[in-house]
Write a structure and sequence with these properties.
261 residues; CHAD domain-containing protein; 11 helices; 0% strand
Length: 261
C-alpha cells in the first residue's frame, strides 16, 4: 500500500462494495436466509467508507449517493429488524420454557416482517430505485476523487483511522452506551476493513456488537412488555441487555491502547 495512491485504494473499495450491493439484491428480494442482512451491511459499508474518506471524494456527489443509500438502508432495516426480533423472541421463550407464547408474541413480528418485505419488493419498481441504480453504476465506473486522493494510501489510511478511533472514544466519553457510540464503532469497523486493518476492525466490531446486542435486547423487552408477556420473560431479556455490556469498558480501553490514545 505504501506507494499506492489513496484514490486507487478507494476506487477498488468502492467498486467492490457497489458489486456486492448489485449481487446481493436478487437474493434479498427473494428473502433468502440472511440475504437482506448481507445487503444492508453492504449498503452501510459503502456509506461508511464514503463518510470516512469524505475528504478524498467530491462532496456533492458523495452526499447525494450517501443520501440514497441511507434511505435504502432504512428500507432494508425495517424488515431485518423485525426478523431479528422474532428470532430473539423465539429463542428467549425457549430459554424460559414458554414456547406456548409464540403465537401471541412471535407471530405478529413475523407478519409485520412479511409486510415490510412486500414494501421492499415494491420499492424496487420505483423511480427512487432507478435513481439509485444509476448512481451505483456511475460510482462503479469512476469514483469522483479530489486532489487529495493522489496522496499515499498508507498515510491517508493512518490519518483516517486515527480520526475514526477518536470519533468512537469522544462519543464514548459523552455516554458509553449511546446509539452514537455504536454507529461510530460500526463506521470504524467498516473503514478499517476497507484498508485491511484487521485489529482495528475487530475492536470496532466488538464495541458495535456489544452495544448492538444491548439495544436489540432493550427493544425486545419493550415489545414483550407492550404485548403483555409475563414479567419473568421481560426480566430475562432485561438481564440479557445488561450482560451484553460486560466487557465494553475493556474493549474501549483496548481501542485506546492499540491506537496510542
Amino acid at each position: 500500500m505504501a506507494g499506492t495512491p489513496a484514490g486507487e485504494l478507494l476506487t477498488q473499495a468502492v467498486g467492490a462494495l457497489v458489486a456486492e450491493i448489485r449481487d446481493g439484491r436478487e437474493p434479498a428480494l427473494a428473502d433468502e436466509p440472511d440475504a437482506v442482512h448481507q445487503l444492508r451491511t453492504s449498503v452501510r459499508r459503502l456509506r461508511n467508507v464514503l463518510a470516512g474518506f469524505g475528504r478524498y471524494v467530491e462532496k456533492r456527489p458523495a452526499r447525494v449517493l450517501r443520501g440514497h443509500l441511507a434511505s435504502y438502508g432504512a428500507l432494508l432495516g425495517a424488515g431485518r429488524d423485525l426478523e431479528v426480533r422474532a428470532e430473539d423472541c423465539r429463542r428467549v421463550l425457549a430459554e424460559v420454557g414458554r414456547t406456548d407464547l409464540e403465537p401471541a408474541l412471535v407471530a405478529p413480528l413475523l407478519a409485520a416482517h412479511d409486510g415490510a418485505h412486500t414494501v421492499l419488493v415494491d420499492w424496487h419498481a420505483s423511480p427512487d430505485a432507478v435513481a439509485l441504480d444509476r448512481l451505483l453504476a456511475r460510482w462503479g465506473d469512476e469514483v469522483p476523487l479530489t486532489r487529495r486522493a493522489g496522496r499515499r494510501a498508507d498515510r491517508v489510511s493512518t490519518k483516517v483511522l486515527d480520526r475514526e478511533v477518536r470519533r468512537v472514544l469522544d462519543r464514548a466519553a459523552q455516554g458509553e452506551t449511546s446509539h452514537e457510540v455504536r454507529k461510530a464503532a460500526r463506521r470504524l469497523r467498516h473503514v478499517a476493513d476497507a484498508v485491511g486493518e484487521r485489529d482495528l476492525a475487530r475492536l470496532g466490531k466488538e464495541v458495535q456488537g456489544r452495544l448492538g446486542d444491548h439495544r436489540d435486547a432493550l427493544l425486545l423487552a419493550g415489545h414483550l412488555w407492550s404485548a403483555g408477556a409475563p414479567a419473568v420473560v421481560v426480566a430475562h431479556v432485561e438481564a440479557a441487555a445488561s450482560s451484553a455490556l460486560d466487557g465494553l469498558p475493556e474493549a474501549l480501553d483496548a481501542l485506546r491502547r492499540v491506537h496510542g490514545i
